[in-house]
Amino acid sequence: MIRRPKPGESEEDLLRLQEEFLAREVASSANVVKKGDKRKNVAGTAQQNRVEKDVVQLPGADPSSGLPMGATSDPPKKKSKFRSSRPAAGDYGVRGQRIQIELDRDEDPEVAMERHDTHITSVLSKIMEHDTSNAAVHLPRGSTQGFPTALHRGHTTGAQNGKPHKKRSLFAQQFESSTSNQFGVSTQSQSEQPIRAPVSSSIQPHSAQPMRVPDLPLTTMASSSVEENMEMRESIVASPQEPHVISGAGLLQGSLDPERARKDIQQIHQENLGRLSAMSEEEILQEQQKLRQMLDPNLLKFLQSKGPSKPTQKPTSSSTLTSKPQADSENDSMDTESSAPMATEPIPEEKMTQETSKQRVHFDDNAGGGVDDVEKEEQEPEAPPIEVKKEWVNMNKVESDKISWLKDMPKPSAKAKEGYQARFDFNGMLVARDADIPVREGLHHHGEEQEVPGYSLEELFTLSRSSVVQQRVLALQTLARVLYNCRISDIGGELMEPLVPKLLEAGVLFLFRWSLDDVNEGVITACIEGLAALLIQPGDESTSDRVFSWYRGSETTPMRPVVEDEEDESGQKIEDKEKSDPQLASQDVIKALLRMNVLERLRYILEVVRPPAPVVLNALAILIRIARHSQEATNEIMKCPRLMQTVFAEFLPLASWKSQGDVVSEAYNYPLIPALKLARVICQNGRHFAATLLIKYNLMSVVVRYASMEPVDMPMNIGEAFQLSTEAFRVWQICVSYGLACDTYRDLYPLLMQQLQVFQRLSILPLDSTHDASSKAANRLQMTRACTVLSMLEGVTHVAGSAVILQQKQTMRSDEQSQQHPRAPPPPIDWSHVSGLMSPLELCAKRWLGEMTNCSDVLEAEALSLAGSSLNFLASVYENWTRQPSYSPVDCLQHIEELVTRLLVPFMTSTSFYSVVCNLKSHSSVSHDGNSSLPIISALPDFSCHPEDQSLVYSCVRRTSSYGFAAGLLRLVTTLLKIHKGMAAKFCPIIESTYVTEYLKAVCKHPHQSSASQLVGSWARYEHHVLYYLVKLYYHVAQQSESCHQYSILYHSTALVLLTSLQSGQEHYVHDLLSTVLFHTDFLAEGRIGDPIASDLADMLTINGKEETAPSTNSSHQGLTRGELLQDAYDHLGSIRHLYMVYFGAAAQALTRSRARSLHQPHDIDTLTLPEFTGPLVPMDWIFLPLLHLYVEAQKAEMLGKTVKSFPPHILASITDTLRWVFMLETWRSKCLQMVPQAAKVARLYCIFLTGNDLFMEDAVSGFLWPILRIYTQPEYLKALDFNVPVPGVASFHDLYMSILTQYEAVSFGNRLFAHFILLPIQQQFNPSLRKAVWFDRVGVLRSLGLPLRECAIPLSNFLEPKETNPELVEIYLGCVASGSVRPSWSPIMYLVALSHLNKFLFSQDNLDKVEAVRLKLKMIRQVLALKDKVLQQQILQYQGLDLTQPLGFNLYPQLPLERLEILQAAEKR
Fold it and tell me: Can you give the three-state secondary structure of 114-163, one letter per residue?
């Protein structure tokens, strides 16, 4: 077998191998077969033993020996004129034709080629000798040396040529820089110099003969030739016969008829000259200015350089050379060579420089290339920053523009008032413009504003696409650090607008994603860091971990943006798959990343690339953020091939691992806390995800591996060991919340009991100053781990307590029901498995609560969480204990009495409890405005938590907050009172405590409404837990103690505020408040203490006549006083409660899920992820919702063609109950309804008038509408009424008002109650468009608006002041009163309004400086004077003011005042 050639073998070795191969006559393993081109109709392939070569077929060759013409030739190319002048191809053969030569079997191809190629001489068939008759003849120069001098680089003295050249060797550059004298040749001894005669119009180029001139000095000859050239150029430039800018060279070059082309060029030139001659100088200057504004400055300079440029001053006789404009130097040199005699010896550059420096001509570019002035004085050139030495390689030409970078940086410009472009250093911090930063730091570059240090975002984006890897990595790292600093609001300066949204808009997400596909590990590292900085708010995870052990702290809010549904032109919803990547990224960044397959790329990086530990940690953090987005995103993570398998196999090892000290350097085969946290977040998103991890990835083996080992025994940093163990218990707690992994509890029961014994010796008091920082940190970590263990045991208690309920339900279900709706089997544990936990945990709670009672120091956040976890555990134990078959009421009550007497009451009467309550007030959401100081990104919501600065964190979840402990304490107390009601009196001091009441007053005074656009408001749910249990505590205590009824208003107000603050996922709280608190008589004590009678007494003592009941039709309600109406509403609390319970109970599925989480029913919990955060669950105007619901249903019926003529009794009763509740709250809880805009209340009541034709006339309805109207027309209510701002829940109030006017005109019959609601929006302080709607659009309303002046509940001054300033509306007033549309007998109020504003407008002294206003006044005065109705004319002109004692409601002047008379006389004269 023949071996293959190896590297390093010579050509002889290859030839020898070839001979051996040919000698064996072995068939080759590969043959070269050249197929014919299908486009050239060549079929088949070359035959064997036929050698094809690309050769030239020479003239005279046999055409038949080759292939057909054009068979294998390339497509015809465009031929030049010279090529086309050659003989035809048929005479000499085809050039480039492939020749095929038939070979014999053993014939050598080279010999055959020589035999056939016999026409070499045909190449020389046409030889043309070059004409040298006009060429200059140079005689050899004599030399004074026998041999030229040997030159060395760097030792020459000749001047270097400054013109740019192509790349040449060092020898060529050295030779050019040498003079002839260095080689022994003297230029002065030259006797004759052949030159060419100058070309002129009288001498033809072909007749020019060589001529000789006498000996002249070289400088004189050179100067004369240059002067002659300049004179000729000036004469040509000055001639207008030829164009200068548009030469037409391109037209001549491509034209087949040059003469015709020259004529066209000349014709165009003459047309341009004619147009210019017809224009004036001003027009030319204007057009010139337009061109300068439109053209690029560089193009403008080029055009100016093509124009005529004559110096203003001729050079003197002593000058030997005239300088040219710098822009024309190259063009002029070309003209000189082609049109003027050229000296045979080049002029030395040194001499030219000396002569040129004597006089310099400067041209003004703005003057079209003309000469501006001549500097006679000598100007010294600016010295270069460094001295360029001739010994330096490739420095024969000094490039000043490049050397200028070696100069000192100029000072940056002053700071602009409107700000300047932000620049950042490599740490992502803003750099000041005047910062003294050395150049060696690398922050100065050759971009814009090179004197300013730092990189702008645009420059970083450009640098990130560099072909140099280091530059890409540097740019991506800098962008990542900029994003991180922006996230924590520590950017080192102030920006005019948020930076992160601008970066997202600029496409930084796509930049990171595209760069993530790079093969370079450094680029991947920078991209992962950038994505983590973009997606993750640094303090969110730490805050979520801190509140995890609080009451219901394991529940999480999905971090997905609220995106409104978009519709296309046809009204169809636009799905996400129909949106482009930029559109999707602008709405939801995580969805855009999932579409761009970021999960697959992360899996590849973790599995194949295996990056260092920081990259792995960032990648896991990105996966956690994606999992927190939604259940859909979590499902994508679970579906990604081998992603979770890689995480469990590489970062959650079950075997032992190598210790790595404080800093993890190798992440693989080492337990990572983020990997375990990722599993926990996935489990939180749903029961099915947790079951998948338990079954497919054996999650509990990992949990047991890390939870069963003491942290001090783990081969890792002690802090990481505690965190790893804590995270394992958190994962276990999540699984237990679904009723899963409970059998592991039985296996580890001895270990858990041992842990409880350790916790009994754990103190929550702060360590003294003798302990170092590491000991304090370890103590905090130990308390955090203990909190997690207790929370996990609490979950086990709920599972064991629900076993009895599941067994009872299982036995009550029939076999058919079990088959149709199968339920989960009972858990593997029951109450007997957890009954032994109660005793040790009671000891722990007693110790920790006792330490807090006697402690006056501020406790750590971990200590409060630990004490709260123990109280939550006891509350869960007592909740489930009462449902067990082994429940003993006597034993349970004794335990409760002992616990309350010895533990709870002493603590709740101590200063520590008051400190806790004061902490609640200082950390309430009242103190938080709902807006985060950290950047808010709509497409990437976060919880806005700062990792270090707690002042930037939401108030109730700060480290110093006590809401977690307070929720556990109040929950325990409420649970005990539900079981043992006799202990309620012991907690009266808590209800009546000044600290508690002050906190509740603050909550009621400033009700907090979370914004739906900011996810930070979801933290308020922890305060909702505290407020809920405070209200429930009062509910239980008030039933047993009469003394605390004095605080019923406060606690009822708190319940009303809490109802409108609850969020999605807290539907159970809404239902419970409606059913037990809001309509309970203990919270509305006014009905029992005689408040209705007191209201009647107050009405009787009121002097204001407006408080009298307005006359109307006979009605049983019309004769009732305000106190009687309140008593009637109080008596109907049961029906009112039923109405709202039915309305809010419509969302049964959401209520069931919320109840399962609130009551801790593991078998009914499907997920611990709360519904999407959309703000408050109950709207502020919830008391009007039944009215809105009825109006919507009536509108639907009318759209179907049904007419609503009358309402059934239950519908009428529901409307009446709604008005009863509104009247009761507006009378007794008016402050709680202040959060509802007054205009919104009026708009909701409009629904009654728009529903049906006579619903507002029903006695029960109008009986409560009248007192509500009196409340809304009180001064403080009218002051708060504002129709100029958008009304919540109403798309257009103007359209709604137009509908109400139409309804009034159709069905009102002049009803006075309806008329009041018509008059409310047309008060003078509101939008004039509402008044125009009555006076112009619905004039018929004026005919039936007959409300008497004295019966109007609205102050008439509100319609008269301020005076009308809308001229169009005043004209409408005049037209209505003049035409009789408004009369005192029909509508006295509107007649009064029209007269008052007409009189004030006509005789006002305002706007006298405006011509249009004066003309309008004069016009209207003449119209008034022309009225036929003299009574109306007198009333308009002599109107004095409002006076309700008069029949018409106004006074008149006895005679016209003097100033008015003068105005009338002036109007008549004009």
Answer: HHHCCCHHHHHCCCCCCCCCCCCCCCCCCECCCCCCCCCCCCCCCCCCCC
Question: What pLDDT is recorded for position 1011?
Answer: 59
Contact 1011, 1175 (CB under 8 A): yes
Q: What's CA 967's distance to the chain center, in Å? A: 36
Please report, for residues 332, 376, 1199, the alpha-carbon distance to residue 361 in angstroms, rounded to integers and kept in the order given: 15, 9, 89
CA–chain centroid gap for 393, Å, is 53
Strand, helix or coil at 424? strand
The amino acid present at 1439, given as its one-letter code, is: Y
The answer on pLDDT for 155 being more than 70 is no
DSSP state of 244: S
For residue 1289, give every residue at least 6 positions away whose Cβ sits within 8 Å of its Cβ, in sequence order, or none.
1179, 1181, 1188, 1240, 1243
Q: Give me the residues paired with residue 53 across strands.
A: 99
Chain-centre distance for alpha carbon 86: 71
All residues at 6 or more sequence positions from 392 whose CB lies less than 8 Å from its CB, including other chains? none
Q: Give the angle 829-830-834 at the CA atoms, nearest 5°.
A: 90
Residues 348 and 773: their CA atoms lie apart, in Å, by: 81
Q: Which of 144-158, 710-724, 934-948, 1009-1023 has the highest mean pLDDT?
A: 710-724
Q: What is the share, in percent, of the chain residues with pLDDT greater than 70?
A: 75
Least confident of 430-439, 510-519, 668-677, 883-892: 430-439
Q: Inter-axis angle of helices 1209-1228 and 1185-1199, to 10 degrees?
A: 150
In whole angstroms, what is the distance from residue 1201 CA to residue 1219 CA? 29
pLDDT confidence tier of residue 663, bands split at 50, 70 and 90 = confident
How far apart are the C-alpha atoms of 1100 and 1103, rounded to whole Å? Answer: 8
Q: Residue 1242 contacts by C-beta under 8 Å, 6 or more apart in sequence?
A: 1272, 1281, 1317, 1320, 1321
Residue-wise over 698-733: b if at least 16 C-beta within 10 A, else e?
ebbebbbbbbeeebeebebbeebbbbbbbbbbbbbb
**Alpha helices, DSSP H, located in 239-328:** 249-253, 258-278, 281-294, 297-305
- What are the start-end ranges of the H helices in 1356-1444? 1357-1360, 1367-1379, 1388-1402, 1411-1425, 1430-1437
- What average pLDDT does this structure show over 353-358? 40
Residue pLDDT, tens place only, 1434-1456: 999 999 999 988 888 999 998 88
Place of tokens 């002569």: 355
Contact 748, 704 (CB under 8 A): yes
Structure tokens at 287: 């057009």
* Per-residue pLDDT, 697: 95
Closest to 638 in 3D by CA, of 616, 623, 622, 653 = 623
Structural tokens at position 703? 């949990």
| Rounded (5°) CA angle 907-840-850 | 20
Cα of 701 vs its chain's centroid, Å: 42
Among 646, 647, 651, 638, which residue's Cα sits nearest to residue 682?
638
**pLDDT (tens digit per residue) in 1381-1405:** 999 998 999 999 999 999 999 888 7
Per-residue pLDDT at 89? 44
Confidence of residue 45 (pLDDT cuts 50, 70, 90): very low
Cα separations (Å) of 539 from 428, 546, 720, 933? 19, 11, 18, 13
H or E stretch at 1247:
helix 1238-1250
Q: How far is CA 1060 from CA 999, 1157, 1235, in A?
A: 18, 20, 10
pLDDT at 1410 over 50: yes
Backbone angles phi, psi at 1338, to 5 degrees: -125, 65
The reported pTM is 0.74
Number of Cβ atoms within 10 Å of the Cβ of 845: 24
Separation CA 959–CA 1136 (nearest Å): 43
